[in-house]
Amino acid sequence: MAKIRRALLSVSDKSGLVDFARGLIDLGVEILSTGGTKRSLEEAGLPVIAVEDYTGSPEMLDGRVKTLHPRVHGAILGVRDNPEHLLQMAEHAIDPIDLVCVNLYPFRETVAKPDVTLEDAVENIDIGGPAMIRSAAKNFRFVAVLCNPARYGDVLAEMRESDGEVSEETCRLLALEAFKHTAQYDTAISAWLSRQFVSRDGLPPVVAPWLEKVQDLRYGENPHQSGAFYIEVGAQEAGLAGAEQLHGKELSFNNILDLSAALDAARDFDEPTAVIIKHLNPCGLASATTLRTAFEDAWSVDPMSAFGSVIGFNRVVDAETAEIFGNADYLAATILPRYRTESGDVDATVLAAFVEAVIAPGYDPEALEILKQKQNLRIMVLEDWLGGRGLDLEFRRMPGGALVQTPDLKFPAPEDLRIVTKAQPTPEQLAAMLFADRVAKHVKSNAIVLCAGKRIVGCGAGQMSRIDSMLLAARKAGKRSAGTVLASDAMFPARDNIDAAAKTGCVAIIQPGGSIRDDEVIAAADEYGLPMVFTGLRHFWH
Prior knowledge:
single chain; alpha/beta; Rossmann fold; Cytidine Deaminase, domain 2; 3 domains; six-stranded mixed sheet; 19 helices
């Protein structure tokens, strides 16, 4: 048990400070304090001893040195049941400090300002605060440490019930929270300084992401696995972690994965676009002049796979779009016949128009009310749609380590394309090719995408062989494959892909190039009179 007789209070966040200090004083605790904390307590009429009076050393160097003194750290770190420690403390007139209440300079808030300078950031790197927190947390058997104002009431209540004592169990939990607090603080500093000191062309030698749990989930990918949702502290891009849920059931592990994929894909397109995601892959994606048309075009790509999907929109959802969204009767009467006519697939079993979740940068009030009629539909909004995108690193965790990379946000411009065949693509084909190339980025490798204008009609995803992805895309497209452009996320290893592409009825091909058999592949395209362009830019996604 830690008997609290003396406390040191030095906080940046002064929430609840005065009431906490008053409660300690009522329990007979002597208060030491510094700077602005001391002024706040004195203005409230509370008795307080300046740390500089306690140590006999003044604050100096513009406040950089206040608590870095043996009388402070000796008072915190001294082991109360160690006779040698007690003897040395007595020899140096060190009175024990039993409670340390410290939170740190607002570094994260400072660097979040758009006009922050390096000098401002550096001055908000706390030195004495983390040192005191760590000292107190290390000596948790005898010292209580608080860095979270939310704990003030609980500690006071325990002291009132225990004659001014705090249990070792409580001190352990407070110490754990304190070490997490300083680790998070140091992570924020190292992450920000890495962005200032290390070129984006290179990756930092040490990466220390800090994850904070925001939500326990019912389970992970499967019911026998545990799962939770964490945010990355200090991330510049909010992404799905910054989205707000406006309606619907609690998000599941898989919902979050698919919503993130839908968000990532929708943000890659400039025109009104609808993305339908199933198991991380787009089973429907289209851009159009209106969001409603984009949604109808996307849903008609593969209504069978769209059952249980997640949808992303890159525009504020209007009432016209919301009215048909999830409207089973309309989709069955209008979109399903369109799919059967266009694809020639009259036998596919198409279930009800069921959507798990939707994400968009906003919703018109009328549209939101329409969507809320779907009781279980998870409605997500991310108003800061593009904020910070591309500024953070991507992580792929694995047992024993992680892979780290910069985001894949680069796409070829028309002038970057290299026409490698005798046949020249038309302007319309080039526009469709660039669209298809963007879609292919969001399809698991090996990826083959067939597009008619700015709408996918066939998608082959995640196959071990590229030719299998080709055949799958053609089967999904059916009759619609005639007249399409074809995009591949990586080079063609052999001409068999071109032979298969020609059989689909596609009229132009876009691919990165770079195969040792490029000449053979180009010759095959020339045989079929197919225009083909190389981007020099691969979009593998494993």
